[in-house]
Amino acid sequence: MKKVECILRPGKLEEVKDALSQFGVKGMTVYQVMGCGLQGGRKEVYRGTELTINLLPKIKIEIVVADKDADEIVKIITKTANTGQIGDGKIFISPVENVVRIRTGEMDESAI
Protein backbone atom coordinates (compact mmCIF):
# COMPACT_ATOMS: atom_id res chain seq x y z
CA MET A 1 0.00 0.00 0.00
CA LYS A 2 1.03 3.60 -0.56
CA LYS A 3 0.20 6.87 1.13
CA VAL A 4 -0.24 9.69 -1.36
CA GLU A 5 0.05 13.17 0.13
CA CYS A 6 -0.47 16.20 -2.05
CA ILE A 7 -0.25 19.90 -1.39
CA LEU A 8 -2.30 21.98 -3.81
CA ARG A 9 -4.07 25.26 -4.39
CA PRO A 10 -7.29 25.65 -2.35
CA GLY A 11 -9.27 26.40 -5.52
CA LYS A 12 -8.41 22.98 -6.96
CA LEU A 13 -9.78 20.89 -4.07
CA GLU A 14 -13.24 20.23 -5.50
CA GLU A 15 -11.91 19.31 -8.94
CA VAL A 16 -9.33 16.91 -7.50
CA LYS A 17 -11.87 15.43 -5.07
CA ASP A 18 -14.37 14.82 -7.89
CA ALA A 19 -11.74 13.26 -10.17
CA LEU A 20 -10.55 10.93 -7.41
CA SER A 21 -14.14 9.98 -6.59
CA GLN A 22 -14.76 9.06 -10.25
CA PHE A 23 -11.68 6.81 -10.10
CA GLY A 24 -13.12 5.06 -7.05
CA VAL A 25 -11.28 6.63 -4.13
CA LYS A 26 -13.68 6.32 -1.20
CA GLY A 27 -11.78 8.05 1.58
CA MET A 28 -9.34 10.88 2.04
CA THR A 29 -8.22 13.30 4.70
CA VAL A 30 -8.11 17.01 3.86
CA TYR A 31 -6.23 19.67 5.81
CA GLN A 32 -6.01 23.43 5.47
CA VAL A 33 -2.30 24.23 5.69
CA MET A 34 0.08 27.13 5.11
CA GLY A 35 3.27 26.82 3.12
CA CYS A 36 5.93 28.47 1.04
CA GLY A 37 8.09 27.44 -1.85
CA LEU A 38 9.01 28.82 -5.25
CA GLN A 39 5.75 30.77 -5.31
CA GLY A 40 7.20 33.01 -2.61
CA GLY A 41 4.54 35.13 -1.06
CA ARG A 42 2.83 38.44 -1.39
CA LYS A 43 3.14 41.94 0.01
CA GLU A 44 0.29 43.66 1.80
CA VAL A 45 -0.04 47.08 3.35
CA TYR A 46 -1.47 47.17 6.86
CA ARG A 47 -1.96 50.56 8.50
CA GLY A 48 0.65 52.10 6.24
CA THR A 49 3.25 49.40 6.88
CA GLU A 50 4.24 47.02 4.12
CA LEU A 51 4.22 43.38 5.26
CA THR A 52 5.64 40.40 3.41
CA ILE A 53 3.50 37.30 3.81
CA ASN A 54 5.49 34.27 2.64
CA LEU A 55 3.19 31.53 3.98
CA LEU A 56 0.29 31.04 1.62
CA PRO A 57 -2.88 29.01 2.20
CA LYS A 58 -2.78 25.53 0.66
CA ILE A 59 -4.74 22.28 0.90
CA LYS A 60 -3.18 18.96 1.88
CA ILE A 61 -4.88 15.72 0.87
CA GLU A 62 -3.83 12.32 2.23
CA ILE A 63 -4.99 9.06 0.65
CA VAL A 64 -3.91 5.47 1.34
CA VAL A 65 -4.26 3.30 -1.76
CA ALA A 66 -3.32 -0.12 -3.11
CA ASP A 67 0.12 -0.26 -4.75
CA LYS A 68 -1.45 -0.90 -8.16
CA ASP A 69 -3.52 2.31 -7.97
CA ALA A 70 -0.82 4.73 -6.79
CA ASP A 71 0.57 5.70 -10.21
CA GLU A 72 -2.89 6.32 -11.68
CA ILE A 73 -3.91 8.44 -8.70
CA VAL A 74 -0.77 10.55 -9.07
CA LYS A 75 -1.61 11.07 -12.76
CA ILE A 76 -5.17 12.10 -11.90
CA ILE A 77 -4.04 14.60 -9.26
CA THR A 78 -1.30 16.00 -11.51
CA LYS A 79 -3.65 16.45 -14.46
CA THR A 80 -6.46 17.97 -12.39
CA ALA A 81 -4.43 20.31 -10.15
CA ASN A 82 -2.10 21.63 -12.87
CA THR A 83 -2.48 25.30 -13.81
CA GLY A 84 1.01 25.56 -15.29
CA GLN A 85 2.03 28.23 -12.81
CA ILE A 86 4.37 28.28 -9.83
CA GLY A 87 2.48 27.21 -6.70
CA ASP A 88 0.55 24.25 -8.16
CA GLY A 89 1.93 22.05 -5.37
CA LYS A 90 3.72 18.76 -4.80
CA ILE A 91 2.85 15.08 -4.39
CA PHE A 92 4.64 12.78 -1.92
CA ILE A 93 4.33 8.98 -2.05
CA SER A 94 5.44 6.75 0.81
CA PRO A 95 4.98 3.09 1.72
CA VAL A 96 2.38 2.03 4.29
CA GLU A 97 3.04 -1.15 6.26
CA ASN A 98 -0.39 -1.80 7.77
CA VAL A 99 -3.91 -0.39 7.87
CA VAL A 100 -6.56 -1.42 10.40
CA ARG A 101 -10.23 -0.43 10.23
CA ILE A 102 -11.10 0.19 13.88
CA ARG A 103 -14.82 -0.64 13.58
CA THR A 104 -14.42 -4.10 11.99
CA GLY A 105 -10.80 -5.07 12.60
CA GLU A 106 -10.23 -5.49 8.83
CA MET A 107 -6.60 -5.21 7.88
CA ASP A 108 -4.50 -3.94 4.97
CA GLU A 109 -6.17 -3.42 1.55
CA SER A 110 -9.59 -4.59 2.75
CA ALA A 111 -9.45 -1.82 5.36
CA ILE A 112 -8.84 0.96 2.85
Class derived from helix and strand content: alpha+beta
Low-confidence region ranges: none
Percent in strands: 35-45%
Question: Tell me about the biggest sheet?
Answer: 4 strands, antiparallel
**Total number of domains:** 1
Helix content: 10-25%
Order of helices and strands: EHEEEEHE
Brief summary of the model shown:
The chain has 112 residues and is α+β, with helices and mostly antiparallel strands.
What does this structure look like?
A hairpin with a 2-residue loop joins β3 and β4. The N and C termini lie close together (9 Å). The chain has a single domain, classed as 2-Layer Sandwich (Alpha-Beta Plaits). It has a four-stranded antiparallel sheet, covered by helices on one side. Strands 3-4 form a two-stranded antiparallel ribbon. With 112 residues, the chain is of the alpha+beta class. The protein is elongated and about 60 Å long. It is built from two helices and six strands; from the N terminus they run βαββββαβ. α1 runs antiparallel to α2. This is Nitrogen regulatory protein P-II. InterPro entries: N-reg_PII (IPR002187), N-reg_PII-like_a/b (IPR011322), N-reg_PII/ATP_PRibTrfase_C (IPR015867), N-reg_PII_CS (IPR017918).
Spell out the key features of this protein:
112 residues, Alpha-Beta Plaits, two-stranded antiparallel ribbon, 2 helices, elongated, enzyme regulator activity, N-reg_PII/ATP_PRibTrfase_C, N-reg_PII_CS
Write the layout of secondary structure elements.
Layout lengths: L1 E7 L4 H11 L5 E7 L6 E5 L2 E5 L2 E10 L1 H15 L7 E7 L17
Antiparallel strand pairs: 1-5, 1-6, 2-5, 3-4
InterPro entries: N-reg_PII, N-reg_PII-like_a/b, N-reg_PII/ATP_PRibTrfase_C, N-reg_PII_CS
Protein name: Nitrogen regulatory protein P-II
Pfam family, one: P-II
